[in-house]
Amino acid sequence: MVMDAVLSQYIDAYYLHIMVLIGINIILALGLNITTGVTGQLSMGHAGFMSIGAYTAAIMSIHLGMPFWAALLGGATAAAGFGFLLGLPTLRLEGDYLAMVTIGFAEIIRVFFLNFEPGGKAVGLSGIPEHTTFSLVWLLAIIVIVLNVKLLNSRIGRSFYAIRENEIAAEAAGINTTRLKVLSFMVGSFLAGLGGGLYAHYMTYIAPQDFGFMKSIEFLNMVVLGGMGSIPGTILGTVVLTIAPEMLRIVAEYRLLFYGGMLVLLMIFRPNGLLGDVRWYDIKKRWFGKEVKTWES
Amino acid sequence: MFIEQLVNGLTLGSTYALIALGYTMVYGIIQLINFAHGEIYMFGAFAGLLLVSVFGVNIFIALIGAMLFCMLLGMLIERVAYRPIRGKSSRLSALISAIGVSIFLSTLMALFRGTNTTRYPEIITIHTYHLGSLDLSSLQIIILVVSALLMVGLQLMIHKTRMGKAMRACSQDLDAASLMGINANRIISYTFAIGSALAAAGGVMVGIYYNAVWPYMGMMAGLKAFSAAVLGGIGSIPGAMIGGLTLGVLEILGVAYLSSSYKDAIAFGILILVLILRPQGIMGKKITKKV
Amino acid sequence: MGILTLEGVSQEFGGLLALDDISLNVEEEKIFGIIGPNGAGKTTLFNIITGIYTPTAGKVKYKETHINGAPPCDVARMGIGRTFQNIRLFSKLSVLDNVKVGCHGVTRAGFFHALLGLPAERMEEKEITLRSCKLLEMVGLYEKRMEYADNLAYGEQRKLEIARALALKPSLLLLDEPAAGMNTSEKVNLMEFIKEIRDNENLTILLVEHDMNVVMNICEQIAVLDYGRKIADGPPEEVKNDERVIQSYLGAEA
User: Fold this and answer.
1) What is the pTM of this model?
2) For B144, how many CA atoms within 13 A lie in the half-sphere containing its CB?
């Protein structure tokens, strides 16, 4: 696209690269935010769903010669499909089984791709056409953000929050909690698959080790740091945690130690993250002294 | 052939059972999946290694030393990462904190020791006994006997001592137990200590049995032991034992008769199947919600 | 035939009989009280009616439909709203959003409606907001609509729970100890309020309450439970003078 050509003239390639990664990560993190931040169902295999999207899209591009948009959609849909298969038995139960099941699932997926002939086994898959551009990533990221805002302010979005807050009360309000938990998990997986497809067509090379357990933890950190359930929070968390290891050597070297410690400290001192309990309403009221109208009779 | 695989399975399974007990005991009292439990097991394996290779102690001293070390570690984790959150925040927060501890501990060990595997020095000469067609190594006998002793000891402690009674009371109803004058914080702390000690014993024995320890060994073992605990019925102590043994046997038989490349998939497949067919596990009671 | 009938309902928990052969008949647009000492099985009865427990034996019939075994969300959609003894609000949501969630069972917009922002969806959203605000005004919480539910006072939280239950447009409303923790003047207000909503919304109300004053004042029929058994059932005057009720409340041969 024209815009990409113009941008590459004026912006350093390295910064452009980071910007693209931020865009892709925003899509992925917003997906996890729906499942874990909003609905309160801890998914620990986000990178696994990302890899399903990445491999499916890459294979559709390379081996089947499908157009890019079809490959992206195919990858995202495949990830959502697996989300459904995994979520249905797990989410109808009470308790935190999802976390364990998703870790196991992501491990199995990794082992599967390690032995998967069309995916190049452990060597990985190279020669993926480079279709993902800066403007495409950010166009999609903005669409995803807008749809997220719409979803979370709708009847379905409210019921996601209600499930996180109190499942029994949500049921008593007529919410089919199992169905909506599965839906929320599928939406999260769909976005993971979409992000995976974009990632594959940006890096042009993917391998099973790109999608390990620690990658899932990275996404979890983005959501938790920014504030669970908050869209601006998740975006902020993603930006900070995508840039930090690039800019700060100390963060890069002790990255995982830092991630682990951060989760514990956040949960003790600020379980709502940076922006989790900040609302537009309160900001407007404080700065403009305005009462937001919700009802005119 | 089959009998031999069965013994191998029971050996592996008894180590799963030791780890699963910690999951099930903690879950029984505070409904938390203690993610860091796998890392405690890993620290136990390394503590045993340190004692054996640096101090040159024998296997039993190493076992006891590692258990004592992990008792303290387990209590420390509970004190630092879980207690400040308990009662104040949601279960999700506690779970995330546990994941944080797990990552922190495994990376910490990786920074000290590198990510490669370390071999255990040969501390016992391994005899192989032939019983008819069955080959049984002295190491397998040690593992089976030590695990059995620990589990019997745990049962006695739970059912015969004052503290065991307090633990059972807490797992029935934590609030009611504290109203009856039981110091719930102390009981929770003890529960972590006991669970961690059992995991450490598992870690040392697995380290010697497979002759390898590495910083990320905790995650897979933890996941499998959790599957074992769910299979047996989460919250049930006999369930964790039966679940661990069953899982070990199924895994070894699966590798022997099906395929070895999907060894790790077996535990996970069982977890999913149990959750679909019988979520309360083998020994678990049907859970009734408190409203 | 009343709006809700129970026939021989029993509930067992691991060998313990929490409810033993309970039969009730709740007439339409009545205020029906259930009283009894602690542990008599009152809340268990509510949990059976709302589908949280499936009774071990017996039938629950609501408007000619058998509802035992139906999941709680379906029971709610049939028009049975409830509040909880130990308040269960969505504490990190605003007061207004709590009531809006309550509208879930009687609204339709789905996932794709929301993403596409169809006119029908936006219309429905407006209606939901309007109705929720009206309900909040009715319980006197409109001014606090943007507060977190967590920050409300105890009595206000109970009122919010009622508003949320009413958002479901129920025909039958189950109130579990609505007056708990309220002072005398709040209790008087609450009694007025309960009568008012019954009259205005053509509701049938089933309530569990400890406060005898409240129960005797507003209930038109009362059932008394003791150790899982029904020991009396009738209008307040009759129940008040029932030998067995006096015994179970005051102890045998006081």
Assistant:
1) 0.90
2) 14
